């Protein structure tokens, strides 16, 4: 089965980025690094094991992405995936252990002053207010959340319900949960809390 890459069924394209923006993306850099000419070729090469092309297929892509994004595992994975029980039960990177908060926040906050002061998150409110949070700030805030969760006895594998509006602090709370190994469960205020809990 191949992915549908055709735009024939699309009635209207709402936003199309400039070519300069497209060329500046990580996806474009990945494609250039691997000699992939266009989006359709990217989809084909990353979803299909092509005859005569060793660097192709789902396993190649997801293994390559780990290296390309420099994702750090505490324990190396044995294989990219195990779908022996069917594709709906795929186990990704079996044997591997990582912490999302470390890969997304902590290591960027610890590198050097330039990296730590780069913007990690941009939030824009409905009233037009914009807040930028650096890796350093996100690191500090998420550590405060992690410490507060641990002080309240939250342990790895436990769930933490997040019932709050979409404000910038959500990101710090989410990564604070990840730091202690807790599972963050968003309960958006747009839904009835009673329905979510029953």
UniProtKB/TrEMBL annotation:
Swiss-Prot/TrEMBL keywords: Ligase
Gene Ontology molecular function: acetate-CoA ligase activity
Domain of life of the organism encoding this protein: Archaea
Residue stretches making up the AMP-dependent synthetase/ligase domain: 113-189
Keyword set includes Transferase: no
Coiled-coil parts of chain: none
Signal peptide range: none
Example GO biological process: acetyl-CoA biosynthetic process
Domain Acetyl-coenzyme A synthetase N-terminal intervals: 59-104
UniProt record similarity statement: Belongs to the ATP-dependent AMP-binding enzyme family.
Annotated protein name in UniProt: AMP-dependent synthetase and ligase
Species this chain originates from: Natrialba asiatica (strain ATCC 700177 / DSM 12278 / JCM 9576 / FERM P-10747 / NBRC 102637 / 172P1)
Lineage, highest ranks first: Archaea, Methanobacteriati, Methanobacteriota, Stenosarchaea group, Halobacteria
